[in-house]
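Supplementary Methods, section 5.1.

A reviewer requested that the exact input to the structure prediction be made available. We therefore reproduce it here, unchanged from the version used in the analyses.
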Amino acid sequence: MYFNRLKLENNHISKTLFSLIEKKFTPQIYKKNAPIYPDYNGHIDSAEILFIKRGSAKSVFFDEGEEFILYFLEDKNIDIIGGTCTIVFLEDSEIYRCKMSEIFPLLKNADFSQMLLTSMIKKSVLERRIIKNLAFGRCKKKVAYFLVDIAIYFKNQNLPLDFDMSVSELAHFVGLKRQTVSSICSDLFKKDIIKRTQGKHFVINDIEKLKQYAQYDID
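The structure derived from this sequence is encoded token-by-token as follows.
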């Protein structure tokens, strides 16, 4: 299944695997907008794994007052609390917060190990793509590249593809100023690659032109 920053693929943790977590850890409740700040000091014992039982959150980092969204998390997603990223909950959520050292005994279960490893590999691939785009993409490429990702994510729907996102939200996702993103969108409007409808809806008219505009490379 395709996965991207809008929505990581669920890990489909089976009841048997979840029971292993429930037996060892106590769920914690986080209110909407509550943050979990990173507390990683370079040692593996200071990192934590987050299992979302119910609810949703976003993984973000802040630079000079600007918010950059890495990806969204929802039920059955797994994330690592560490590094420089902050977790911010989008609704009241119930989670399990587990120290890495506390997870080690569970790794004796082959199914649990495979589930955890698969999730971490997917996150690693996604984050590598994000870094590649930020490091080498020009501003217009960043915007167009992300819009292509959205079109691929909704690939089962026919064009034109209508999705709900404001210019400010788009700017947060690509890590650019709102004014810059607005100018790039105006250029895309003139080329009839995308258009705006009422409210904060974007419509993608031509995915192939958008790929050319982005010089899109999924590898």
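Helices lie at 15-24, 100-103, 110-136, 139-153, 167-174, 178-190, 207-214. These observations are discussed further in the main text.
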